[in-house]
Amino acid sequence: MLAQSILLLAAAAFPAVTAAPALQYREPTKTSTSPRTTHSVVAGRGGLRFDPENIVAEVGSIVEFHFTPLNHSVVEAAFDSPCVPKDATSFFSGFFPVPRPADGSAVQSGEVFQIEVRDDKPIWFYCAQNTGRHCQSGMVGVVNQRFDGDKTLAVFRSKAAAVQGASVVQAQVQGGWRGANPNPQSGF
């Protein structure tokens, strides 16, 4: 009798399991847990140019702009209208004034500007510094240029050289992220 009472108490304390618990299935998210590729572009290294000026980047990649002396920016443009923002939502880094060291050593801004590549369409860009007419002098570039037609970086540069007026900027920094340079001593 005592054994039966203990069994009944144990059964009450630990209810019987009649079936295995149902498995929960969740759809995977679209977010990747793998690290993103970051493509570094230096504005002003070696003169009025972006280095590199033609970037091939997968969707989801980051393009990070580093700025050297004296004062550069990066603005998104349309292929047919260089030196002018593509539209009201075009990215604009703002200007990055960087003093030139007296000893001539390499230096860059303590901040960078980053954009995310959101699709595989070409992204045309330029420097809007008007002192020296940087855009018109060839300081232009592209992310994901197509190689099957006449919309090339060389043609874009030629169109920029033909622009008579001043380069145009957005009213504010937008379309990307401005933040601390992750490696300001990198020798750019």
TrEMBL record:
Keywords: Signal. Residues 1-19 form the signal peptide. SUPFAM superfamilies: Cupredoxins. This is Extracellular serine-rich protein.
